[in-house]
Design a protein that fits this description.
Distance between the termini: 31 Å
Shape: globular
Strand order of the largest sheet: 3-4-5-6
Number of strands: 25
Largest sheet: 4 strands, antiparallel
Helix content: under 10%
Strand content: over 45%
Order of helices and strands: EEEEEEEEEEEEEEEEEEEEEEEEE
Structural class: mainly beta
């Protein structure tokens, strides 16, 4: 079940769209608006939601595109910016949702929907969107950037690439690997051993980030300070959350003490250097954690 945590009030459940009571959050903006997915009991499918303190949980539905009838389409929301613009995946097509325009499908690198699957994972305050798109058929996928006027292929290091985060300066992070599952699956999840983390900039293009001594990793988010977070294998082949900067290099954020499995991953970072993710606890389960970088 989705929850909102604050230092003052602790954890607060956000509810769901109905029964069964399932919901999963993916992003939050500075106004406290949260996006994710919840089970739509009327359609028996997952649907993207927008949650706010005032309005509760709103079902964002689907795009209504002719290629996917409303009754049969799922939707998932992955990112929201400070203007309340939301991005995600509707039936394996990237979308942008706005309060004024509703849900609009985005082109893939192969052309207009339904030509080529895609998914949008993050959006900055300039309205630039990043995610993944079909690059060639059969199924080769590349990280993609949607600006106001075009879609750009960000290239790749290995067979596939997937952009997961963008800051307001247009710096982009993600992962590149040889194994791919689906556009709406977070690339590199499950500590995919072929995945490597990357940083993309307009000046330098795509470049691989270092690891914590292991052979694989993935970058999930970047803030306006250029701080990048994600996961990396250590020399002991453990998956640990990391923080990377161009000046300081890569830093192991560590794991919760006492656990027999030393495992953690970071999924988000704000402008104050607060990092969120999970770590395996002493009882062997994954617990939500927050790291504060000094």
């Amino acid at each position: 079940m989705a929850f909102l945590w604050s230092k003052i009030f602790g954890a607060k459940g956000l509810g769901s769209l109905g029964e069964p009571p399932y919901s999963s959050p993916n992003d939050i903006n500075e106004s406290g608006q949260i996006v994710g997915s919840s089970w739509d009991p009327g359609r028996d499918l997952l649907r993207a939601f927008l949650w706010s303190e005032k309005g509760g949980m709103l079902n964002l539905g689907t795009s209504g595109h002719p290629s996917m009838p409303y009754e049969n389409a799922f939707s998932l929301s992955f990112g929201i910016n400070n203007r309340g613009e939301i991005v995600g995946d509707s039936d394996n097509f990237a979308f942008l949702w706005t309060a004024r325009g509703g849900m609009l499908l985005l082109d893939s690198l192969l052309g207009e929907p339904p030509l080529g699957f895609s998914a949008a994972w993050d959006i900055n305050d300039r309205g630039w969107i990043v995610g993944i798109s079909h690059h060639t058929l059969p199924d080769i996928y590349h990280a993609a950037l949607w600006t106001k006027s075009e879609i750009l292929d960000l290239g790749t290091i290995k067979l596939h690439s997937h952009a997961l985060g963008i800051n307001n300066f247009g710096e982009i992070v993600g992962g590149s690997g040889d194994v791919f599952s689906a556009p709406h699956a977070r690339f590199g999840d499950g500590f995919e051993p072929s995945c490597v983390a990357f940083l993309w900039t307009a000046r330098s293009g795509i470049s691989q980030l270092p690891t914590l001594g292991g052979t694989a990793g993935c970058a999930h988010a970047i803030n306006d300070e250029g701080q990048v977070v994600g996961w990396s294998f250590t020399a002991e082949n453990e998956g640990h959350a990391f923080l990377w900067t161009s000046k300081g290099g890569i830093m192991d954020l560590g794991t919760l003490p006492g656990a027999s499995v030393q495992e953690s991953a970071a999924y988000g970072i704000n402008q104050r250097g607060q990092v969120v993710g999970y770590s395996v606890a002493e009882d062997g389960t994954r617990h939500a954690v927050i790291w504060t970088v000094k």
